[in-house]
């Protein structure tokens, strides 16, 4: 019989708050974390079509972590460290009492160390002095820098894995952490999703892709509007979410507080298009169905969905179609929300932040609102989406995360029962 896996700790760095308490209070209030971008020194923001993002404002890593040298740790890894520290503290997991090779680290990151990467390449081309490239350039920009730094900070010597599948990265990190514990390779894992890519080049790239919202530059808080008829693209965000996963026997042995159980996971590829999902929704529905099967559940048992819902025209409609395909008549009875409506699309961190919102919804019975759901799009109308906080006695939750490269992930959580 495979091991049951539970969530015992949470940590957040987000545009609506640093720390679980601030994040959840803001989420339930429906407070938007989308704000105007002032510019990218030396580029004025005027040259960009989109001028808004979900920014973590006034962030100083020194406030949260001792002995952090910012020039040695990229912004996304700083977010990861802060979120992981909170999650470990929240869980009560004391690494000095653990067997270090039985604690793993799984990080999901879409872009990696882009802040330093763009800065250094710009300086190299401007000044043509290759000998002046930062000596830590390579270890800082590698995608596994955050997982390595988190492991070193806490002495976690078990499996250390970075997953980069664009927007589904940290949902896959959750799933792979689940498998690692199920297979007996670890007693506990630190799962983190992190990205900080609101940079001149990455932002310009998404603008050129015409993927970002441009209609609400003067009213940033109105820009991210999943499932709404007036949506015109996603809003970039940044941040990190961390969850501590443990085998149930391990958590019970140390009398840990348990938030929820992580019960199922599925990963698929549509093998269709690098950016656009299949419009019939069949592959998305299949991914959700496989996750439920992994959890030993059926569609009739899901009470709540934390949707991928990026606020793009095609993506939201496809996800809604897939939900209707799988859940049929129950689709309108399921509570559904979109965390991205509040924080924007945090890329590699999206799955972990959605997972945290799912776990907190299971624990509290409160489902945060979907902001800017003013005029439901007939192509995506689902009765369970609400502009206000919903109070429901939910027992199960499904997290969706889909990424560029035809990549799909779904994770199932359920309320813990001994």
Number of helices: 12
CATH topology of the largest domain: Peroxisomal Thiolase, Chain A, domain 1
Q: Proportion of β residues?
A: 15-25%
What can be said about the biggest beta sheet? 11 strands, mixed
Return the CATH architecture of the largest domain. Answer: 3-Layer(aba) Sandwich
Average predicted confidence as pLDDT: 96
Number of strands: 17
Q: In the residues, how many domains can be counted?
A: 2
Write a structural description:
The structure is a single chain. This protein is an alpha+beta fold and 418 residues long. The protein has two domains: 5-260, 3-Layer(aba) Sandwich (Peroxisomal Thiolase, Chain A, domain 1), CATH 3.40.47.10; 264-414, Thiolase/Chalcone synthase (Peroxisomal Thiolase, Chain A, domain 1), CATH 3.40.47.10. The chain is 31% helix and 20% strand. It is built from twelve helices and 17 strands. A hairpin with a 2-residue loop joins strand 4 and strand 5.
Q: What are the main properties of this structure?
A:
Peroxisomal Thiolase, Chain A, domain 1; 31% helix; single chain; 11-stranded mixed beta sheet; 418 residues; 2 domains; alpha+beta; two-stranded antiparallel sheet; 12 helices
């Amino acid at each position: 019989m495979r091991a049951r896996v539970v969530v015992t700790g949470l940590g957040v760095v987000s545009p609506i708050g640093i720390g679980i308490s601030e994040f959840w209070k803001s989420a339930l209030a429906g407070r938007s974390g989308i704000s105007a971008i002032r510019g990218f020194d030396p580029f004025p923001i005027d040259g960009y079509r989109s001028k808004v993002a979900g920014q973590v404002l006034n962030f100083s890593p020194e406030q949260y972590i001792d002995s952090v040298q910012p020039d040695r740790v990229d912004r996304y890894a700083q977010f990861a460290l802060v979120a992981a520290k909170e999650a470990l503290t929240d869980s009560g997991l004391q690494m000095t009492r653990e067997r270090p090779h039985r604690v793993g680290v799984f990080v999901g990151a879409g872009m990696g160390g882009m802040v330093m990467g763009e800065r250094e390449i710009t300086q190299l081309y401007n000044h043509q002095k290759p000998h002046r490239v930062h000596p830590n350039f390579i270890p800082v920009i590698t995608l596994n820098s955050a997982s390595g730094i988190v492991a070193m900070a806490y002495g976690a010597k078990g499996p250390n894995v970075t997953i980069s599948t664009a927007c589904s990265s940290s949902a896959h990190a959750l799933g792979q952490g689940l498998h690692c514990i199920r297979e007996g390779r670890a007693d506990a894992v630190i799962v983190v999703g992190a990205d900080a890519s609101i940079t001149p080049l990455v932002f310009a790239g998404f603008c050129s892709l015409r993927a970002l919202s441009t209609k609400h530059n003067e009213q940033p808080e109105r820009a991210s509007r999943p499932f709404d008829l007036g949506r015109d693209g996603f809003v970039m965000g940044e941040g990190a979410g961390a969850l501590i996963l443990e085998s149930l026997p391990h958590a019970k042995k140390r009398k840990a507080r348990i938030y929820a159980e992580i019960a199922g996971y599925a990963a698929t590829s549509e093998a269709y298009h690098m950016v656009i999902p299949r419009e019939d929704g069949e592959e998305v529905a299949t991914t959700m169905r496989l996750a439920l099967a992994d959890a030993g559940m059926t569609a009739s048992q899901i009470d709540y969905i934390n949707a991928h819902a990026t606020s793009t025209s095609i993506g939201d409609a496809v996800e809604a179609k897939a939900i209707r395909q799988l859940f049929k008549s129950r689709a309108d009875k399921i509570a559904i929300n979109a965390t991205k409506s509040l924080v924007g699309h945090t890329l590699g961190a999206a799955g972990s932040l959605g997972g945290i919102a799912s776990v907190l919804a299971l624990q509290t019975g409160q489902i945060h609102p979907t902001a800017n759901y003013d005029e439901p799009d007939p192509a995506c109308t689902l009765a369970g989406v609400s502009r206000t906080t919903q109070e429901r006695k939910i027992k199960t939750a499904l997290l969706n995360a889909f990424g560029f490269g035809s990549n799909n992930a779904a994770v199932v959580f359920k309320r813990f029962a001994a």
